[in-house]
Specification:
heterodimer, A: about 180 residues, alpha+beta, two-stranded antiparallel sheet, 8 helices, B: about 450 residues, Hypothetical protein af1432, Alpha-Beta Plaits, 2 domains, four-stranded mixed sheet, three-stranded antiparallel sheet
Chain lengths: ~180, ~450
């Protein structure tokens, strides 16, 4: 299992490599994707909230990473709301763990680094529902219905569009009822 | 005679006054599984530091149900339309959601082991590789097995709500089976949850640490569902008028953590309890509540439910629990030899590492604040301001200088055997002197 320093270094590296500002939602979902889809042994235990998979230990680790100077974090206002911006610090982290998982980190940034918070919440909720409900047992329509119950503010069409995008990337399992079947 | 849905039963609570239950909830409370919570102390061995801390998970569970209901009712009254619009709630479903929230809150801790969190590390690894089981896994398994019939088939439920045990368990676990009610999960586990609000007030009362109090009434009076923005769903927050109440909640957590939950002697006793119970349990761990295929292991759950404080105390009285059992019985706990400041930076962590290395085998236990059950993760809650022409949402830290400047508690503590304390003190002083500190 990953040690604490490696987690702080990972947070710093994600902040450095993320093309957009990395907020708390992005950090939470990157960690979820790394652990769930790339089997990076982060030791978190994600459970579902209305904003998608969440583990408060990620925020706890972020707090310690800030305390130890790996990253800085500040609140940014935007119309109708606010978010956090997590910034890396110099020098860039280097470690055996980061070397070992360089491809995984590159993958999560390539696949999700440019997504907005709402899209990250939707994608991670889809992955969570897909993994938990065993992909082979439900159709795309079933999965979309399930996700729609968690996130009813997204239209079913938009959820299906996102499911298909994740399927194309090979992130979700093959289901009965898919177009390709 | 059919159960009267309007008949209410009452408990008198030292924190909240009267707590009301319906006939169905009363039967759940009367079930042996729930009565077992009378024999599980909320704060384990904390009464050795704060003698009044003898309260149990039983009264806390009733309190969480009460607070969750107050919060739910306040949100419905203030933000019902927001949720009906954004979550497509049907207006006639509110009663069912309310009842699910009440039961989830009532039963959230039914899976605790002896002395609450002290035994949590003795829960076995999960078969799915997702780390160790925790008490929430046991709560969910108990709801799906021992309490299933009483939940699914009680007349009051069948006639009024048709709630399934699985729905309550899934809400506690955070699974997609609870999709329709997942918004309410934040009332059971979140920044503004009823669990935290009850245990802070209750623990403050029983320990006498009055700085652990906060203004619950004002929080209830200002909690809202903040409309979602930028394609995101609604979330829990407070109106601007509740800023100081939310600030007092954050500070209460800070004070209770530093003075009670991470108290140096309490931490030592938790360790002794855990090690003594390791000695008592077959294979040193509680039985796993779930089979490899994800189904409930009913025999394991039955065996697990036989464990409570009374059983552990009985074994201790008979001389069981090995060296750590003896330490508990004789009040001979490990002594702290070194601790960092509450929010150590890199330099203090390095210093701690030096002391730990120098102590070598003398250091018999280490406690890290961020790894404990009551850790202080996050502190911000969204604040909704409607005093201007448009709706504005900002974090609590925008309004509160105190919250903005509150650093995470990442304190570390090192312990040695009482008999080795003088030797360890000398080694520690030597390390600190080399670093230009100490006597």
């Amino acid at each position: 299992m990953i040690d604490d320093n490696s987690k702080y270094e990972l947070i710093e590296t994600l902040a450095r490599k993320c093309p957009n500002r990395m907020g708390r939602t992005a950090l939470m979902k990157f960690m979820y994707f790394l652990q769930t889809l790339r089997n990076v042994p982060l030791g978190y235990r994600f459970s579902l909230h209305s904003y998608g998979p969440f583990d408060s230990d990620v925020l706890s680790d972020l707090g310690e990473a800030e305390l130890l100077g790996y990253v800085n974090s500040e609140v940014k206002d935007y119309p109708g709301g606010y978010g956090y911006e997590i910034k890396d610090t110099e020098p860039p982290s280097k470690s055996e763990f980061l070397d070992e998982h360089e491809d995984d980190i590159g993958w999560v940034i390539d696949e999700f680094g440019s997504d907005k918070s709402a899209d990250l919440e939707l994608s991670s909720t889809i992955v969570f529902a897909d993994r938990e409900e065993r992909p082979c047992s439900q159709s795309t329509e079933d999965l979309a219905s399930l996700v729609h119950q968690v996130k009813p503010h997204f239209s079913k069409a938009r959820i299906i569009q996102r499911i298909e995008r994740l399927e194309e990337k090979g992130i979700l399992g093959q289901r009965k009822g898919n177009k390709s079947n | 005679m059919p159960a009267d849905p309007n008949r209410q039963y009452e408990f008198r609570c030292p924190v909240h006054g009267f707590i009301q239950l319906n006939a169905w909830e009363k039967e759940i409370v009367n079930h042996p599984v729930f009565q077992r919570l009378r024999r599980i102390r909320q704060l384990a061995w904390t009464d050795y530091i704060y003698p009044g801390a003898m309260h149990t998970r039983f009264e806390h569970s009733l309190g969480v149900m009460h607070v969750a209901t107050r919060l739910f009712d306040a949100i419905r009254e203030r933000s019902g339309k927001v949720l009906e619009n954004e979550l497509s709630y049907r207006s006639d479903a509110w009663g069912r959601y309310r009842q699910i929230v009440r039961l989830a809150a009532l039963l959230h801790d039914v899976g605790h082991g002896p002395f609450s969190h002290a035994g949590e590390d003795l829960m076995p690894e999960r078969a799915d590789g997702k780390g160790k089981h925790n008490h929430e896994d046991y709560s969910a398994a108990i709801i799906r097995s021992a309490l299933k019939d009483l939940i699914n088939n009680h007349e009051l439920n069948v006639v009024n709500w048709r709630i399934q045990a699985d729905e309550i368990a899934a809400l506690l676990e955070g699974k997609t089976e609870a999709a329709q009610t997942i918004f309410w999960r934040d009332l059971v586990t979140g920044q503004l949850d009823a669990d935290r609000m009850d245990y802070l007030l209750r623990d403050a009362l029983h320990t006498g640490v009055s700085s652990g109090g906060f203004d619950l009434d004002r929080l209830v009076g200002t909690i809202v569902a903040i409309p979602g923005e930028a394609d995101r769903g609604p979330r829990l927050g407070i109106n601007e008028g509740g800023v100081h109440a939310a600030e007092s909640l954050v500070l209460a957590r800070y004070f209770m953590f530093t003075q009670v939950y991470f108290h140096r002697v309490r931490i030592a006793y938790d360790h002794h309890l855990q090690r003594a119970m390791t000695d008592m349990l077959p294979d040193g761990a509680f039985p796993a509540p779930i089979n490899a295929d994800g189904s409930v292991n009913e025999q394991s759950v039955t065996d697990y439910l036989q464990w409570d404080d009374w059983r552990v105390l009985g074994i201790l009285q008979q001389g069981g629990g090995g060296d750590h059992g003896k330490r508990l019985s004789e009040r001979n706990h490990y002594r702290e030899v070194f601790h960092t400041v509450e929010s150590p930076g890199a330099e203090q962590i390095a210093e701690y590492g030096d002391v730990k290395k120098a102590l070598g085998g003398l250091a018999v236990h280490e406690a890290i604040a961020g790894k404990t059950w009551y850790k202080l993760e996050g502190k911000d809650v969204p604040v909704l301001s409607t005093s201007r022409t448009e709706v504005d949402v900002k974090p609590l830290s925008h309004y509160s200088t105190l919250v903005r400047n509150l650093e995470p508690i990442a304190q570390r503590r090192l312990y040695v055997d009482k008999e080795k304390k003088a030797e360890a003190d000398s080694i520690r002083d030597g390390v600190l002197k080399k670093r230009g500190k100490g006597p």
